[in-house]
Design brief:
The protein is an alpha/beta fold. The protein contains 14 helices and 15 strands. The protein has an eight-stranded mixed barrel with strand order 3-4-6-7-8-9-10-11, surrounded by five helices. Strands 1-2 form a two-stranded antiparallel sheet.
Length: 421
């Protein structure tokens, strides 16, 4: 467009010059002069136009180069940031894997140590298992060795089955859902331990605790349950941090002066799991905890871990004291709420029990819920959460689902547990 304008301007100027010269010199000279003038002015005009275009191109090129350099700087910065994030992720994953592997190694070491001691005690019937083996069984106090020496043959057979299950790590973790009401949304799992005999049959807690507790073996079972709860929580945290795990700790373990301080040290080192692990103790264990036991519970609560009470037989409780110790959940059998409040020495009716707990900052969980009509009654009582076969049976988590695989915990594979008779 610029060239056309320059050409037309030069043509007009040359024609004007030629017409003026024709009046004085004649047409031949005028035409020649006009042609020369046209060529000269066109050349000069185009030269100026090219110079202007070059200036504009140079300016645009300079701006483009500046934009390109700025883009390259941003791209390099982004690449460096991605490398830093990748390195941090690799380090975090590596640290997590190392932690999990270290825990598994500690667990295996503990199991070998405990199994060896248990084996020697069971066979000799006279050597103590260690500090953790000292126990109280009702009105008498003795050692695991003396207990082994005094039990009946069928109990001795069960003790040997327990010993082999622990020694061969045949302790399974079962998870049962706890849902919120009325939405029935999954909020927690309760972790339950089961032993497997050599023939594959499942040994329920009611069976093995009668023999394992007096022999001082419950700390071993709780040890395994704790490690596996930690592994499950870490795997769940990769997907959501909204689901917690109730981890049962026996009264024998709470009173174990050898194991429980180590347990507290371990949880202090893993206090990042607070808020996702709720430690559950039976009412009997809490009532018998004593000064040191309550001190241990308060310490655990101060680390940020919530506490829960189950196996509640009486509701004549000091709820203010329970909250002060660190309890935030109380599990009550659904049948107690629907028809047994008077028998449980409750100070209020079922309709007002939730309000009583709320005043002390305690959540109510109705357990052993098996029928829909029970849920209707629980909703009338404003119960927070419910647990039972109606909402889901306990399911076993396979061992290979708890091991790291390629830096990520493998997905859980569960096997349903048949309802116990």
């Amino acid at each position: 467009m610029t060239k056309i304008l320059v050409t037309l301007t030069c043509l007009f100027a040359s024609a004007t010059l030629g017409a003026a010269l024709a009046l004085f010199t004649g047409w031949p000279v005028a035409i020649l002069s006009a042609a020369v003038s046209f060529l000269f002015t066109q050349h000069m005009g185009l030269s100026f136009a090219r110079r202007k275009d070059k200036t504009l191109v140079a300016r645009e090129f300079t701006q483009l180069r500046k934009i390109t350099m700025d883009f390259e700087q941003r791209l390099n910065a982004a690449a460096n940031r991605m490398e830093d994030i990748s390195a941090q992720a690799d380090n975090a994953t590596s640290a997590q894997d190392k932690k999990i592997v270290a825990e598994l190694q500690v667990l295996e070491s503990l199991m070998r140590d405990f199994a060896g001691k248990i084996s020697r005690t069971a066979r000799a019937g006279q050597a103590e298992i260690g500090p953790a083996a000292v126990m109280q069984t009702g009105r008498r106090q003795g050692t695991a060795a003396s207990y082994v020496a005094s039990i009946a043959p069928h109990q001795n057979e069960m003790l040997e089955t327990i010993r082999l299950s622990l020694e061969e790590n045949r302790v399974d973790l079962y998870l049962q859902p706890i849902v919120s009401l009325p939405q029935r949304k999954l909020r927690y799992y309760e972790a339950l331990s089961r032993l497997r005999a050599l023939d594959g049959s499942v040994i329920m807690p009611a069976q093995y605790m009668k023999v394992a507790a007096p022999a001082g073996l419950m700390s071993v079972v709780d040890n395994l349950l704790l490690f596996r709860c930690v592994q499950v929580v870490r795997r769940l945290a990769q997907k959501t941090r909204d689901i917690g795990i109730f981890c049962n700790i026996s009264g024998d373990t709470l009173a174990d002066t050898e194991f429980f301080p180590q347990f507290l040290d371990y949880m202090q080192a893993n206090r990042d799991l607070a808020g996702q692990i709720i430690f559950e103790f039976s009412q009997s264990a809490v009532l018998k905890a004593g000064v040191q036991g309550e001190k241990n519970l308060r310490f655990l609560s101060n680390l940020g871990f919530a506490l829960s009470m189950d196996h509640v037989e009486t509701l004549a409780l000091d709820f203010l004291r329970l909250k002060a110790i660190g309890f935030s959940h109380i599990k009550v059998r659904a049948s107690t709420l629907t028809q047994g409040m008077e028998g449980a020495n409750a100070a209020v009716a079922a309709e007002d029990f939730k309000k009583l707990l709320s005043r002390h900052g305690l959540n109510l969980i109705a357990e052993r819920v098996e029928e829909e009509k029970t849920v209707v009654q629980l909703l009338d009582y404003n119960v927070d959460y419910a647990q039972g076969f109606l909402f889901g049976e306990p399911r076993a988590v396979r061992d290979d689902a708890l091991k790291p695989e390629g830096g990520v915990m493998a997905p859980a594979t569960v096997v349903p547990l048949r309802k116990a008779g």
